[in-house]
Design goal:
Length: 304
């Protein structure tokens, strides 16, 4: 069963189109990265999951339950770290977790949860004195209580230091290993790349791409760049390479005697074979993959 289905969802705020006919399915057990620049509409979609925002058209289901028609069941198996989370200034960290345990009727020790999110030392301090990162860890801890089947994390690393970011990654992987589906939004590409099975790129309210990271690399063309130092090369050889399936462009950096080729991952070997067949000696060979950052720019910079 799909963990999340989003069907043709649109949402406007006045003249702003926050979501524009978004279609998306996230399968059970996936770690799905929801990427987009500031203002793309990421939080709006998460707000629709939570029924904090009502779509103008379309529907969203969580494990088959309609988020607007049956929000209680839709949210029952969900743990959420929302964008505009709040903590209760006068309650301690431990009391927050105890509250979540009671609300979800869960069987876990509050200190184990606080330790997992790295704020056990501050368990008995009131949350009013917590830093932004500590508050965020606390709300994440509350989301983890009760082993939710779906974890929805809106920019979970935004207030965290590098150590905290690493901890979040570990938690995401652990949660996924115990069977949870994870949906997390971010504009920080490398974090998404580090843990996600699939990503969706949202831009101006539109879902402009959904794929695995390697699939996205391939679909923008030049997914892989080869740099091949050769003993010699001429226009005929370059033409031959460019005629290969999966090759986008081949050119010679004359000063370094280096052939550069943008191609799909599958075409790499064919390029080397073609050089060999043309009697060209390969002296050195390097592969450079398009970074997610480059892909992101490609998809969100007006090229689509
Ligand atoms: N309650 C609201 N009232 C009016 N406009 C809103 C509201 N919520 C969101 N918007 C607008 O909708 C658009 C999408 O906002 P949203 O917060 O969903 O983007 P986001 O991708 O989560 O951005 P960020 O990464 O900055 O959090 C923005 O133009 C925003 O100003």
């Amino acid at each position: 069963m799909a963990a999340i289905t989003v069907e043709n969802v649109s949402k406007r705020y006045g003249t702003v189109r926050a979501l524009d006919r978004v279609d998306l399915t996230v399968d059970e057990g996936e770690i799905f990265g929801f990427l987009g620049p500031n203002g793309a509409g990421k939080s709006t979609l998460i707000n629709v999951f939570l029924d904090y925002a009502h779509p103008d058209s379309g529907a969203v289901t969580i494990f088959g339950h309609d988020c607007q028609e049956n929000g209680v069941d839709a949210k029952a198996r969900m743990g959420v770290l929302p964008d505009g989370y709040t903590v209760y200034d006068r309650l301690t960290g431990r009391q927050h977790i105890e509250y979540a345990i009671e609300a979800k009727d869960a069987d876990v020790h509050p200190m184990d949860v606080l330790e997992r999110v790295g704020i056990h030392d501050a368990a008995d301090q009131t949350a009013g004195g917590y830093s932004k990162g500590m508050s965020q860890r606390l709300v994440l801890g509350m989301a983890l209580v009760g082993e939710p089947d779906l974890l929805v994390l809106d920019e979970p690393t935004s207030g965290l230091d590098p150590h905290g970011i690493k901890q979040i990654r570990t938690i995401i992987r652990e949660e996924n290993e115990r069977g949870a589906t994870v949906f997390f939004s971010s504009h920080i590409l490398e974090q998404v790349e580090a843990v996600c099975d699939r990503v969706g790129i949202l831009y101006g309210g539109e879902l402009v791409a959904t794929d695995t990271i390697s699939g996205l690399r391939q679909s923008i063309g030049g997914g892989t760049k080869l740099q091949i130092t050769v003993d010699r090369c001429d226009a005929g050889v370059l033409e031959r390479i460019e005629s290969l399936e999966g090759v986008e462009h081949a050119w010679l950096e004359e000063a370094d005697n280096r052939v550069e080729v943008t191609c799909s991952n599958d075409a790499k070997m064919d390029v080397l074979v073609a050089l060999n067949d043309a009697g060209v000696d390969v002296e050195n060979f390097q592969t450079e993959e398009a970074s997610l950052e480059e892909m992101f720019v490609e998809y969100t910079d007006g090229n689509r």
